[in-house]
Design brief:
Largest sheet: 7 strands, antiparallel
Order of helices and strands: HEEEEEEE
Shape: globular
Strand content: 35-45%
Structural class: mainly beta
Mean pLDDT: 82
Length: 168
C-alpha cells in the first residue's frame, strides 16, 4: 500500500465534467487498504432521496455546491455550500435538492465486506452439515447506481448515493 498523501480528485472538475442532470455518485474513494468510504453525490434540481435509515454507520455530509435540505427528527436543516451535517447512525432522514441542485460529499467508516459464516454446529443436523446450497438472492437490494447492498429488506432509495431502487 502506498502511504504517500496525494490528490485523488478535484471536485469542481468532476462537477463541471458531469452532465447537468447527472444524479448519484460522481466519484467514489476506491483506494486499496483504506479505512474510509467517501462519495461525491449530485442530485439534480428538485430531486430527492427518500426517507431512509443507516443502521450501522455515522455519516458526515459536506455540501460542495447548490442547496437543499435534510428532513430529520421532525425538522429541516438547510444545506448550502460549506455546510457540514452529521447524520448519526439509526437516524431517519431524507434529502431534497434546491432549484440549483445539490452536490455533497459523504464520508464514513468503510463497511466491512460481506461474509458467509457456516451455521453453528449445534443448530445443524449432522446429515445437513456438509450440504451446499445457494444463499438467498439479494440482487433486489443492490443499488443500481453504486452497487451498495442495502440493509433494508425493501429499499426505496440508496443511503449511499440516493439512487431509487426499481419497483418490485
Amino acid at each position: 500500500m502506498n502511504s504517500v498523501p496525494r490528490v485523488l480528485a478535484v471536485l469542481d472538475d468532476l462537477l463541471t465534467a458531469a452532465a447537468h442532470d447527472a444524479r448519484g455518485a460522481l466519484w467514489q474513494l476506491a483506494e486499496q487498504g483504506r479505512e474510509l468510504d467517501a462519495n461525491l453525490v449530485r442530485l439534480p434540481p428538485g430531486a430527492e432521496v427518500g426517507e431512509h435509515q443507516e443502521d450501522v454507520l455515522d455519516v458526515l455530509l459536506v455540501v460542495v455546491a447548490g442547496s437543499g435540505r435534510v428532513v430529520a427528527g421532525g425538522g429541516e436543516l438547510d444545506l448550502t455550500p460549506t455546510t457540514v451535517v452529521w447524520l448519526p447512525r439509526t437516524s431517519r432522514r431524507a434529502l431534497a435538492a434546491g432549484p440549483d441542485g445539490l452536490a455533497y460529499v459523504t464520508v464514513h467508516r468503510r463497511r466491512p465486506g460481506l461474509t458467509i459464516k457456516p451455521p453453528a454446529a449445534s443448530s445443524v443436523a449432522p446429515s445437513a452439515a456438509y450440504e451446499g446450497g445457494e444463499a438467498p438472492c439479494m440482487l433486489d437490494r443492490v443499488c443500481p447506481g453504486c452497487g451498495r447492498l442495502s440493509q433494508d429488506p425493501e429499499p426505496v432509495f440508496c443511503s449511499r448515493c440516493g439512487e431509487r431502487f426499481p419497483e418490485h
